[in-house]
């Protein structure tokens, strides 16, 4: 029989309920401490996948695509390839891409609601290893990210490769999921 230890344990600040991200090895850094080296910045024709992601309904439209390397403490830590619909951001310039794109999105009057993020472990390709100054085959984290506005539309789709990446979340216990998994 377990004893009730209600007075023992770890205190969790109430703000964790509003933002489950506790720690991310890159985004914990201040913007001023992260440099971006732009590999390219261009307009491309949206393919079928991007049409679906951005709900462009089969309309052949342009999207911005940029690739940048994120540098922290003089170390290349991340390769990011991001796409944004040109219709939302017709004035986007490379100078904005060097800074916080999410700050730019907000300055354009869009309200960011949340992100849908997927993680998977990978081994770095030769091409990515050359960009990150590391050995081919080094373990890394591949992250797919969709930025969602308050109105439910996707404003951003990113693919990132991170070296030395760790993340921690606050996850409430879900008794329904737990019960389901028992059966």
TrEMBL record:
Residues 29-168 form the UbiC transcription regulator-associated domain. Signal peptide: none annotated. InterPro entries: Bact_HTH_transcr_reg, Chorismate_lyase_/UTRA_dom_sf, UTRA. SUPFAM superfamilies: Chorismate lyase-like (SSF64288). This is UTRA domain-containing protein.
């Amino acid at each position: 029989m377990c004893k009730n230890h209600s007075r023992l344990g770890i205190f969790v600040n109430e703000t964790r309920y509003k933002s489950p991200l506790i720690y991310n090895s890159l985004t914990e850094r201040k913007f001023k401490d992260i440099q971006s080296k732009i590999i390219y910045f261009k307009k491309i024709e949206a393919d079928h996948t991007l049409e679906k992601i951005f709900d462009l309904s089969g309309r052949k439209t342009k999207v911005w695509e940029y690739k940048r390397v994120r540098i922290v403490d003089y170390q290349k830590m991340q390769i990011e390839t991001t796409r944004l619909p040109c219709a939302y951001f017709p004035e986007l310039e490379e100078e904005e891409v060097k800074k916080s794109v999410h700050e730019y999105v907000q300055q354009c009057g869009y309200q960011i609601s949340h992100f849908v993020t997927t993680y998977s472990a990978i081994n770095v390709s030769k091409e990515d290893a050359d960009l990150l100054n590391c050995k081919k085959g080094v373990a890394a984290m591949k992250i797919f990210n969709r930025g969602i506005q308050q109105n439910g539309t996707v404003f951003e789709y990113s693919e990132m490769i991170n070296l030395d990446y760790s993340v921690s979340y606050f996850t409430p216990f879900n008794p329904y999921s737990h019960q389901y998994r028992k059966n």
